[in-house]
Predict the 3D structure of the following.
Amino acid sequence: MELSVWAWGALGALVVALLLLDLALFGRGRAEISFRRAAIWSVVWTVLGVAFGAVLWVWQGTTAAEEYLAGFLIEKSLSIDNLFVFALIFAYFAVPPASQRRVLFWGIAGAIVLRGIFIAVGAVALDTFHYTIYLFGAILIVTGIRMARHQTAEIHPERNPVLKLLGRVVPMSSEYDGDRLLTRRDGRRFGTPLLGALVLVATFDIVFAVDSIPAIFAVTREPFIVYAANAFSLLGLAALYFVLASMLGRFRYLNVGLAVVLVFVGIKMTISDLYKVPIGLSLGVIVLTLGSAVVASLLRPVRVEEQPA
């Protein structure tokens, strides 16, 4: 799929415009965010993401649309799982809800830029060094197995080396100063807890990209589709966070579903030289697996005594 510079420019301009819209309509203000408002905006962003698949279908055909939708589902599902980490970070720093959305917005904006860089590097690596496809596949399979066995990394902000490095550069304060990242006391500059939260969110965005970028490259090798699926899955993540933040622990089988998907796309990538799994089949497996995980979680919710304190 050869696309001209104008197509990339149009996609970039659209993403920037939607980010500014998100900041103007959802990222500002001090009022508490209601579940209804967050749910409405989450649905709007999801519909926009799916609608871009329809645009690709009209513009580039069925295959491009199916690849995008499969990638969008994978990235959206992985982003939902990542929200649990953000919830832990916000709890650790006791970030007020009104400030959480600003941290999420800037974290999302940074993630869109960083993933664009990672996608460019990944695409070049796959084109230049063919064996990279096996490396990506192995990463996904190992990640999926660890996720299924609940061996994903625990979050300990106080032990995070990036946060320790930040403390050496900028002394950290334990008190907030509105939405400011930096504050002054007795003529000295201090970082607020909001700065620490933002740094950790950005750090884990980079960590998450290690899983998400190889996962979508297993579905499609088209950089335009890869970036579009990543960008649209991240847009509206702030709204989705406020919908799911209090319910993340109830999706007890989400990790299992994600693990199956990651292992599947990892195997799909490693055997691609021998057999090309049809994109329609891939899309069906992803939808069925994630849908089954959600339904099973709803049918067998976590009991109160099982929920983490």
